[in-house]
Amino acid sequence: MKYLKLIPNTMTLGNLYCGFLSIGYAANGQYKNAAILILIGMMLDSMDGWLARKLDADSDLGKELDSLADIVTFGVAPSFLVYYTHFFQYDILGFAIAGLFPLFGAYRLARFNISASSNQVNYFTGVPITAAGGIVALLTLFGAFIPNILISVIFTALCFLMVSNIKVPSLKEVPLPKYGTIITVFIASAIFMVFVGKYGQFPYLIYIATPVYIGYLSYYFIKKKGKDEN
């Protein structure tokens, strides 16, 4: 039974590894693959906390590990991705601008970690780094249809929104896993694009992660419905 409590941390480490792989794919010019891996990291990030609560495996180690994984997958990886796909045209200045994203993200995570959890029930202060990193991944995934100037504006805005005092509604009280709808829709869209042949081949991991995550969503709703009926 004690080994079951390792599952949430395994999900977190999987999230971290997706970030590492995303950086590698971006460095090798496989930008769509890199973006998809960040989205898969979001899926794993949404599952680790839920599993920790279900398995009574919440721990300080898990929380610290989650933050370390987030800064890599949703901070460093998106900054590399947006540099290689967009800011590279500005040479060293572009590299410096892209590097701001993990700096703002790290500050956002640190501020979140020292905040009282009771203040985070209904809202987040500033845009969560997970959501910001996912948006950057989507910008690059659909970059062919988005003007460069708009990508620059959104990227800059996300940096400041992460450290802002804007109250962002939390999804904890919504009967849906964190980021569940957004990720399911875009992963399904990505798979559709693979079949129509517009964007080439995505990592094989997506064909494993997507059905697993859909199964997770189905289980969540079934359990939720059962509780509501009781």
UniProtKB/TrEMBL annotation:
InterPro entries: CDP-alcohol_PTase-I, CDP-diaglyc--ser_O-PTrfase, CDP-OH_P_trans, CDP-OH_PTrfase_TM_dom, CDP_ALCOHOL_P_TRANSF_CS
GO cellular component, one term: membrane
Record field: catalytic activity: a CDP-1,2-diacyl-sn-glycerol + L-serine = a 1,2-diacyl-sn-glycero-3-phospho-L-serine + CMP + H(+)
GO process annotations (BP): phospholipid biosynthetic process
Location of the protein in the cell: Endomembrane system
Statement: the UniProt record of this protein carries the keyword Lipid metabolism: yes
Pfam families the record matches: CDP-OH_P_transf
GO molecular function: CDP-diacylglycerol-serine O-phosphatidyltransferase activity
Superkingdom of the source species: Bacteria
Transmembrane feature ranges: 92-109, 121-139, 145-164, 176-196, 202-222
PANTHER family with a match to the protein in the record: CDP-DIACYLGLYCEROL--GLYCEROL-3-PHOSPHATE 3-PHOSPHATIDYLTRANSFERASE-RELATED, CDP-DIACYLGLYCEROL--SERINE O-PHOSPHATIDYLTRANSFERASE
Membrane-related topology note: Multi-pass membrane protein
Uppermost EC category: transferase
Gene: pssA
Protein's name in the database: CDP-diacylglycerol--serine O-phosphatidyltransferase
UniProt signal peptide: none
Keywords, ordered alphabetically: Lipid biosynthesis, Lipid metabolism, Membrane, Phospholipid biosynthesis, Phospholipid metabolism, Transferase, Transmembrane, Transmembrane helix
Similarity section: Belongs to the CDP-alcohol phosphatidyltransferase class-I family.
Keyword field contains Transport: no
EC number: 2.7.8.8
NCBIfam families (UniProt xref): pssA
